[in-house]
Amino acid sequence: MRGRRGRGGWAMGFGLALAASAVAQAAAPSGNGVARLSWRAGEVSVQRGAAGGQAAEPSAAWTPGGVNTPLLAGDRVATAAGARAEIGLDYADFLRLDGDTQATLLTLRSDDLQASVEHGRADVAVLRGARANAEIDTPLVAVRPRGEGVFRVDVRSDDQTVITVRQGAADVSTPHGSALVRAGETMTVMGADDPQYQIVDAAPADGWDAWNAARDRRIEDARSWAYADRYYGGLYDLDGYGHWMFAAGFGRVWAPGMGPGWAPYSAGRWVNEPYWGWTWVSSEPWGWAPYHYGRWFVDGDEWVWWPGPAMGLALTGAGPRERYRPVWAPAYVGFVRMPGGAVGWVALGPGDAMQPWWGPQGRPGARVGMIAALGPVGLRARYANLELMGRDPVVARGVGAVPAARFGAGAVAREPVRFDEVRQAEVVRGGPEARKFAPRPQERGAADPPAGRRQAGRKQAQPKARKADKKKQRPDSCCRL
């Protein structure tokens, strides 16, 4: 790949012309990780990937994207003019979209994140503690951050991409070579048949950059990081919606401040996700981390969330255990069969174990292993909600229930549940039965009306396959004058 650093003229070509087939080759989405729509303003739409985790067909329907919408490999996100969206790829990697922008999630694994920006303006933030290798593709190039930093990607057309590095450094590559772009530099790539590039000093930050910097500060400066494992995605959302307090035997717990009578998993909906099965989508702005990690229990007369053990916390008295790596789940609940056949659920406590209902598709009976109880051994019996709900009226009021025919059919409208009904409820042990609750599982997101179609006149760009890491790249010294 050839190019030039400086303000005078353009370097001719990348050494070889980009073959159209190399740009159009689609990468098969991979990984069972879960991203989320973590912030939005204006009209944001989601196009769901096809069955089996494949990329969405261009003709697939677009549905409204709300905060806390789970996103899987193969999903597309689009913003209308004037809208903005933030996608939390994991706890430390974020992809933000300006108005009239479209992106596709390609790979979501704990060590590997890949997305493509088909058109529009995006910002990639790799924050403190990030561990995954990230890559953002455009119709012309692949951008690979070398670590923490802030990277702006403007896809102005299928044959022009502009990359600006505000912090950090990134390798920008094509199938024929790569160039290093450092902090304070802008690289412009033009031409599909005879590509050229130029690297110059970056222009001063504008309003888009300022907004992204403010989002980064809000995430990194959140107080909640001090009370839980940093691997929790969405932990920063808890600031401003509740308070942290001390609970004997558990350390810090978070109380949402909703008052008596409120219960977790009461405001939102159940959706049936590929691989993950029934997944809770909260309508509460803070409702990601507390519903997909940790455990809930009643403290006095209110529910509190315990994130789980953190580094250095001794659970058995035998000394500190190894660092706890949180396990994301579609919901930390136990399902129950109510009298009359209604579907019920209750938040799991520190003393409850869960046998997940999700796992590989196409393998009858296949599921992941049981997730053990997390609480201190001596306290587990006192905080096992599946047992307590039949004895403690406060815990029993935390049981949600809907008629079986309405489970998974839009926003939850919880039916009043009497204590005597909870005492007769049958706990569903394990996952296979949980999948049978809803006789007509809906397509993902189908409970909401479409948010409008994608802007007309845009070409549906196909993401490039990830270049093999072991492919030898031309040294940087050959690529600049």
Overview of this protein structure:
With 481 residues, this protein is mostly beta strands. The protein is 9% helix and 32% strand. It has seven helices and 28 strands. It has helices spanning 20-24, 207-220, 289-292, 385-388, 393-396, 419-424, 432-435, and strands at residues 4-5, 35-41, 44-47, 62-64, 70-71, 76-79, 84-88, 93-97, 101-109, 112-126, 133-137, 142-145, 149-157, 160-167, 169-174, 177-182, 185-190, 196-201, 243-247, 251-255, 268-273, 277-282, 295-299, 302-306, 333-337, 343-347, 400-402, 426-427. The strands form five sheets. It has an 18-stranded mixed sheet that branches. It has a four-stranded antiparallel sheet with strand order 27-26-25-28, with no helix packed on it. β21 and β22 form a beta hairpin. The N and C termini lie close together (12 Å). The relative contact order is 0.14.
